[in-house]
Amino acid sequence: MKRWIEQRISRQVMTIFYILIALVTLTSIGTYFYTQQSIQETTVKLERISEQRARATDLFETWQSMQYELRGHVLLGERALLEEVRTAQTNIDEQTTWFEEQARNAEEVQFAEDARLLFSIYTTRVMPALEQYVIAKQAGEIDESFLQMRTVGQFMPKNETSTQTRFKLNSSSAADMSASIVDMESVFTDYRQNLNFQESELRDALSKQLVKAQWMWLLILLGALFILFVGLQPYILRLTNQLQTLMVNSERLASNPSATLIPIKPLQNEVGQLSKAFNEMATSLRTQQDQVDREREKTARILHTMRDSIVYTELETNERFVNSALFDLYEHPLPSTERGSLYPIAMYYPMFMNQIDDPERLNQFTKRAKEEGIFDETYTYTMQEGQKTIRMYAEPIDLQNERVGVIFVSRDITQETEINRLKTELVATVSHELRTPLTSILGFSELLKRRQLENTKRERYLDMIASETKRLERLVSDLLDVQKMEAGMSVPDFKVESLYDLLSDLLEIHAGSTEHHFFHFDCDESLFVAGDPAQLRQVFSNILNNAIKYSPNGGNVTVDVTCEGDTIQIGISDEGLGISEEDATRIFDKFYRSASEESKRIGGTGLGLAICKEIVQLHGGTISVQSQLGEGTTMIVELPMVDHVNEESSS
Fold this sequence. Notes:
This protein is of the alpha+beta class. Helix content is about 60%, strand content about 15%.
């Protein structure tokens, strides 16, 4: 029998269930009848108290009505009011009789006696006196106002032999008969207070009875449960221990499929079968989880190796996960060096969006992809105030024919865009710069070939051809210099040079090329720099040439050399056209030309200052510009200062 029961939990549970049902039913029925009887008795008492209170209130109101009607009769002398007084008198008599019949305790008996005594005194003494007073006043035997009634006392019946001492009636003045109202109100008030006190006691008793019944039911039920579980304790403990072990193993398996599980010795019932199935499931789950983790890690590592930035968005939760390339794109350190999974981006998303120049349009593009399923378009946007150009496209992620997410791929095309721009500018610049001198050379060559010219014109044409050829040579040289510097082939030959000698030679050469400019030079002869003399001459020659070229109206050209620590600052200023703030930020870019009309008329390749910047940086220095439109330009070159004596000794 025991083995048969242990093999089926349902039999055990049903047995316990039936026993519990029987115990709960018996205790509930007993408690119900006990509580029902207590409530019924108390309810009857409360209803009786409620009825007594209502009748006492009605009696008090009838008393007041009778007295007011009687006073009206005394004041006005109308018989109709006296009839209403008679009716009220009859009602008071009936109500007082009810209280006399229903009295069950000393308080109720005392109230009935007091009510009857007040009624007797009022009907036998007060009312006859007032009626006689009204008759005498109507007959003209007395003449006084109602509020005084000094003579009404003579109509009061004498009752000096009465043994009643509870209520006193002073008949020396009829105005004192109002004391009967006070006596009546005092009696009724005391009685109502007594009823309220009784009601409060009954309600307290009812609450205590209910609490007592609840405790009785609870104690009986707890006792039954205690007896029941004491008998079932060994089996229940064995069963619950195994279920608890299964729960602990489930939690461990849910948090970490590779966690160590507690060994379970299966029972012979369904719990044992469940334990056996759980162990088999755990083994299978571990194997599957290992495979899933391996595939997930492989996928994550593949995505992390991509140079394109990837953002995967869950459509249901709107969670976003990214690869490491996105943090590189936004120049933010990686949150973790572990690359076994993608990185959540929730805490970084607002910071990254602040770098987008037009986040609203980007959000519109991503919204179309997520909500409208539009994936046949790409979107190009800029970030960091135009410093980077990004191209994005979106692709859907579907699982079992259901769309679960969208992946956004972003590629940094800043360099490609810049290369395309430089190619365009190179073609445009080279085409323009080559066409002009080639046209001049071709034209003058044709003239020299086909015509017999005077020596003066021939010499002038040959000079023009030579000048345009030198112009072509400078253009080709600049292009070659840029190519060498970008390829790292331009290695400067460093020597110690006197900065004073270098600048004074250049100033002398450029001063001879113009008649409209005045040169000012201030430099300490003891300053020396280390560098390639040819490249340094190219830098300062280019700057001086620009100072002359971009101040077509002449003016002062100042070369001011100062020292600050171990740095030499060479400032070359002119009073020419000047440049705007926008042009000043890009003036050192290759092929960049100012958009102003004056600069376009002057011409140039846009390579000179780019070459100067590369040379200065190769020499460990910097170059910058300060300018305002119409007020001239100052180019500032900073180079490290060297000690001429130490450099020569080391040589």
